[in-house]
Design brief:
291 residues, alpha+beta, SH3 type barrels, 3 domains, 3-stranded antiparallel beta sheet, elongated
Length: 291
């Protein structure tokens, strides 16, 4: 026991009156280990509850993230106290420094506050499909400063949280499970309008990724400059990969148009050239002439 006491009382670092002993290092490791164990238990309990009660996975993840950050703040405070640094004195003494740092890291703090808002407000959750700056991403992780998503090209996108909270963002997952989409096409003037509408609706029916047959609707929407303009509306649950669905439907439409001799016209433009002419100026009106 004496040997153990001497070992724990051994000075690792000694700077003036400030000393770090072996037992201080042991306390730090214990705080770190206990924190990790507590977080592991909380995470396991939360996600078991999520599976058992069919809770929303995004809400469960957000709650766990908030709890994790709070526990780590407490743990860091305990570690500072264990090495002899008074947290309250540290905060009071560094107030002016924190103001300067805050001004320099204003955008970072903005992202952090936005992350807290996202996690507590739960307006954005894991697996939500968002449209941000024209890019569609599926949210995979919401962090304190940034969130991570996967776009339709399977590329990981790191998104500052302030970009989500301050900009206009479309959340495709906030509505019903199925969403309405459309495919537009133009055909040559003189085409059979009823036949075109029927082909558009049949083309959607041939594709497996649509919902509710009764909600498929072909429309004649406009007399265009070079074409009769149509669109077909349909519902689908495959929101994230909808561009692939639309592409497949366009292929079917193109095949059916070819089979039925329906032409998709090229844009046309008529150019009219006005022949040049020479203006005859009377001699007495020409520059430099005298009367």
């Amino acid at each position: 026991m004496d040997a153990l006491s001497k070992l724990l009382d051994f000075n690792l670092i000694s700077i003036g009156d400030y000393k770090i002993k072996v037992y201080t290092l042991v306390i730090i490791l214990l705080i770190f280990l206990i924190t990790r164990i507590i977080l592991k238990v909380i995470k396991t309990a939360l996600f078991q509850r999520y599976k058992g009660l069919h809770m929303d996975k995004g809400n469960t993840y957000a709650l766990y993230q908030i709890i994790k950050y709070v526990i780590w703040v407490i743990a860091i405070g305990l570690i500072l106290e264990s090495v002899g640094i008074k947290v309250t004195i540290l905060i009071a003494g560094s107030a002016a420094l924190l103001v300067g740092v805050g001004l320099g890291l204003q955008q970072t703090f903005n992202d952090v506050i936005s992350g807290i808002i996202l996690l507590s407000e739960k307006s954005i959750k894991i697996n939500d499909i968002l449209e941000i700056d024209g890019d569609v991403v599926e949210i995979q992780e919401i962090g304190l400063r940034t969130s991570r998503g996967l776009n339709r090209s399977d590329i990981a996108i790191i998104i500052p949280n302030s970009l989500i909270t301050t900009n206009k963002v479309i959340n495709w997952s906030h509505q019903k499970k199925k969403t309405r989409f459309k495919v537009s096409v133009g055909v040559a003037y003189g085409s059979d309008v009823d036949l075109v509408v029927r082909i558009l609706e049949e083309s959607v029916l041939e594709h497996p990724d649509f919902d509710d047959t009764k909600m498929i609707e072909g429309r004649f929407i406009n007399f265009g400059n070079s074409s009769l303009d149509f669109e077909v509306l349909f519902f689908s649950e495959n929101v994230f990969r909808i561009e692939k669905v639309k592409s497949d439907i366009r292929k079917i439409i193109n095949r059916k148009f070819s089979e039925n001799k329906i032409v998709i016209p090229f844009p046309q433009m008529d150019l009219h050239f006005k022949s040049g002419h020479t203006e005859i100026i009377p001699k007495n009106e020409q520059p430099g002439s005298r009367t």
